[in-house]
Each structure stands twice: as C-alpha cells, then as structure tokens.
Design brief:
Length: about 325
C-alpha cells in the first residue's frame, strides 16, 4: 500500500481510504459486527485511513474494528458534522469521541460546505474545531464539498487543513462547474498546502462499469493524497487493495444496480429535496420524485433527512 503525507497535517495516510458510508444503515445496513469485520480486513491489508460522518451512523462499526488492532502506522479516522453552532459542534465532537472510542479524533470536518457563505454560517462550529485542535482533541480541521466554490472558499482559509472534494472522471455530482474546473480548484487548494481526500471516484456507483479507468483517473493525480472508496464486503476490500497496489489484471467487480426507492407513504414534505446536494429530487404530484437520475450519486442524504423513512437507496 502506498502512503502519502496529507498536506501539512503531519498525518500519513494510505492512498486507499475506507469509505464507511456504504456499509452503514444509509446503504447496505451491515450490523456493527459485520461492518467491523469488513473494515478489519482493510486495516489488516494496510489501509490506515477511514472516512465517516456523524450522519453515516458507522461509529460503532469503526470502534469495534479498531478494538485490539495494532500497527506501527497509526489509524487515521476522519469524520464530519453538519453542526453550525458552538453547542452543536461540541455535541458532535463528544459523540465522535465516545462513538469511535478515541480521545483524539484525527480529522474533523464540516459536512457538505457549498461556498464562503455556508462557511461563514458555520463559523462558530469551526471555532470549536480550531479550539479542539489547540487542545489536542483533533489533529486537523477540514470540510467536505460537492461544490467547486466550496473548495475555493476553504482554500482561502489558512486554518482549514483538509478538503474532501467530489471528483471523478465524468464529473457526475460536481456542483457549480465542470470536472476540469474542479481539478483547477483542487490545484489551488494544494498550492495552499491543503490535504486532499477525493470522494465519489466511482460517481456513487454510476461508473462501476468503468471501474478500472475511473479509479485510475484519480489515482494518477499526485495532487490527490487519498481516495475514499465505499466498501461493504471483504471481497471488495481485497479487490480495491490489489488495484491500489498496482494489479491491473483484475476483473471488473460485480455490478450492483442501485436505485432510489420512494415509498407510498411519502407525505411530500420536501425535506429530502432540500437535503439533496445535487438537485436530483423534486416534489411532483405530492411525492418525492427523482427528476435527474444522472445527478444522483446514491449518497443517501435524502433518506437520512426523511421524517417518514420513506426514501432510501436500495
Ligand atoms: S422527506 Fe420523506 S416524506 Fe418528505 S418528501 Fe422526501 S421522501 Fe417524502
Ligand atoms: S437523490 Fe438522495 S441519494 Fe441521490 S444525490 Fe440526492 S440526496 Fe444523494
């Protein structure tokens, strides 16, 4: 496994990052015990970087996988929260420490930032993270974003250490411009010494048919320090690790068809429409409807926002 320095954070991370959204209740729904076995296999094979979020509900899976795991190379966990107030972020921090079983959470990010405006709106939460960094409770502070403007805005803030942008070979899911404009924004961020953790290299599953070329598209870019790939089976872990270690004779993984399902009991409240970062949903005829299938990256954020449990990725 190849390892990189993550910008100026001092953290050394594997090029393959274990994306923990996929195994959790928003997608495959593995139990903490099942998920921890998948993750443990990745750790045993040299993956030392795990990407999660409060929203993903996979802290238990990760804590179990870390229990008793020993390695010369420290495991780096990054998590994210939507908190925008001091109080909210203090609660998120405490929840992460308790849930992950870690006194120090290596990387803490603001989830899904769109622009300088949303960053300003989250400033009290950012201040908590910077205080936590000073106190040694986190080692690095960052943001995740699907938006080009989000990358550029975070690049201009010296105290932000890490940016997790959406980037893939076709540009699916990128907001506010093209794939190449996102690459230019990432290049700007690297000039400012930001650590870059790419997300959605497979477009949430849309690019699975072109699995190998889609992963190579991000892997060949030195400005991308690590690439988060969602994994939910030991087989997928072994396959991805082999690919990241240079094997190019591997078959394309089994295609798992995904789709969004809206149940009959949807009340048309619109919470999912507001939660979708990609504008893929509208209310039509009093119910949530996918209006832009190509824009849906199966992140499951709509399902997490639904008060009726009426929309999910299946
Ligand atoms: S949040 Fe749930 S209930 Fe509300 S519109 Fe979306 S699917 Fe329907
Ligand atoms: S429709 Fe749902 S799963 Fe698809 S991109 Fe929007 S929030 Fe994510």
């Amino acid at each position: 496994m190849e390892y990189r320095q993550l910008g100026r954070t001092g953290l050394q991370i594997s090029r393959l990052c274990f994306g923990a959204l996929t195994m959790g209740p928003l997608q495959r729904g593995l139990s903490p015990e099942q998920g921890s076995e998948v993750l443990r296999r990745a750790l045993d094979l040299g993956v030392n970087f795990i990407d999660t979020a409060e929203l993903y509900q996979t802290y238990d899976h990760i804590r179990l996988a870390l229990q008793g795991f020993e390695s010369d190379r420290p495991v780096v966990v990054t998590t994210k929260s939507y908190a925008y107030t001091r109080e909210g972020m203090l609660q998120s921090l405490e929840k992460a420490q308790r849930g992950l079983g870690l006194d120090c959470v290596p990387i803490f990010m603001l989830h899904e930032q769109e622009s300088s405006h949303t960053l300003r709106g989250h400033w009290p939460a950012l201040e908590v993270l910077w205080e936590a960094k000073k106190a040694g409770v986190v080692k690095a502070v960052g943001i995740s974003t699907h938006h080009i403007e989000g990358v550029l805005a975070a690049s201009r803030i010296p105290e932000i250490d890490v940016i997790s942008p959406l980037i893939n070979s076709t540009g699916i899911g990128i907001q506010g411009g093209s794939r190449d404009e996102m690459l230019s924004a990432i290049a700007e961020a690297v000039k400012k010494d930001k650590g870059i953790v790419a997300m959605k290299p497979l477009g949430g599953g849309h690019l699975l048919a072109h699995w190998s070329s889609a992963l190579d598209y991000v892997l060949v870019r030195p400005e991308i320090h690590s690439i988060a790939v969602g994994m939910k089976t030991v087989r997928e872990v072994e396959h991805n690790v082999a690919f990241f270690e240079g094997r190019r004779d591997l078959p394309t993984p089994e295609l798992t068809t995904r789709r969004l399902h809206v149940d009959d009991w949807c009340i048309g409240c619109g919470a999912c429409v507001n939660a979708c970062p990609n504008g893929a949903l509208e209310i039509q005829g009093g119910k949530a409807t996918v209006v832009s299938r190509d824009e849906c990256v199966f992140c499951g954020y709509c399902g997490a926002s639904c008060p009726e449990f009426a929309i999910k990725v299946i």
